[in-house]
Amino acid sequence: MSSSVRTVVADRGDAGVRLDRVLRRHLADLDAATRTRVQSWIESGCVTVNGAAVRRVSARAVLGDLVSVVVPDPAPRRAMLAEPAALAILFEDDHLLAIDKPAGVVVHPTFRHPAGTLMNALLWHARGWGAGRRPSIVGRLDKLTSGIVLVAKTREIHAALQRAGGGGDPARVALHVGRPFQGRHFIKDYLAVVYGRVPVRGAIDLRLALAPRDRRHVVASAASGAASLTEFERLARARAPRAGLALLRCRLVTGRRHQIRVHLAARGWPIVGDPVYGEPLWRDVEDPRLAAALRAFPRQALHAHRVALAHPVTGKGLEISAPLPNDMRGLISVAGLHNQE
For each of the chain's 341 residues, which pLDDT tens digit applies? Predict the structure, then answer.
């Protein structure tokens, strides 16, 4: 694969800033310069500072540093096809829409899932939008997570929603398209059924990093990785003396990959049915009916339930909710978690 070299000089705005953020700022014109890819370029030795390779993503830039990066030329991309498929639309206007994604649906085409994704269905839905409008997904849900997916109709709206809901502190960042506003937050709430004895409320502040042996997975660390914060509230708990079982509302303060799943598992409260970060704690549940329901649950019991934000154009408050899917509703009923505390 061919490549090109980009070189930038660290200015005053870069002094003391992490190297990956410096590169993302200066390479904003490159679609390939996503946070994950920039970090992988650094870790693989493609980035030099003043002629010396730097492999630490968290290295800090100094005013005047000469930063060079070898940028691989993008491989030819297969055109995404529009495919007719039903969409559960929760909200839509001229600027954005919100979809209730079922569990089991992949959000964006990949090598293993080139078709049948949410994006393929959105392209079909958008075929009459007109010039300059194309669906662009803001934040992705895992295949086995259900709930709200936000979709921008233009690049400007996508950038505004990304600033509000992605990166360092999305719950506290204002949108910047259209009229300015003050005191508005971007809020993402999830519902999760977890094992363990969870306190009434709290926060999980653990850094997250890609697993060194399998970069598809994420690990929690107290010292390295990206700063990550999840707030939680226990809505109900079930009678499962040996295992513990609870229904939680989790709020993302940062939006990292697999954040809620990894944070809860790190605290000893794995999500029921999580195939990667979960545990088979249904074995410790004495009620045979409940144990069978927990064992049979086919995916992580995690649902993106609510989004609240200021509309990126009007500035007015917008709140969108997605109803619980039948599988989680049934599990909650069998566990007796529908009776909120």
Answer: 567 899 999 999 899 999 999 999 998 888 788 888 899 999 999 999 999 999 999 899 999 999 999 988 766 666 789 999 999 999 999 999 999 999 999 998 887 788 899 999 999 999 999 888 999 999 889 999 999 999 999 999 998 888 776 444 433 433 333 333 334 468 999 999 999 999 999 999 999 988 877 778 899 987 778 899 999 999 999 988 889 999 999 999 988 999 999 999 999 999 999 999 999 999 999 999 999 999 999 999 999 999 999 999 999 999 999 999 999 999 999 999 975 54
- Give me the catalytic one of 142, 189, 274, 327: 142
pTM (2 decimals)? 0.75
- Tokens 């829409």 correspond to 97
Q: Of 143, 172, 138, whose CA–CA distance to 155 is shortest?
A: 138
Residue with tokens 């390939």: 32
Domains of the chain in sequence order: 3-72 (3.10.290.10), 89-185 (3.30.2350.10), 188-304+331-335 (3.30.2350.10)
Q: Is 142 a catalytic residue?
A: yes
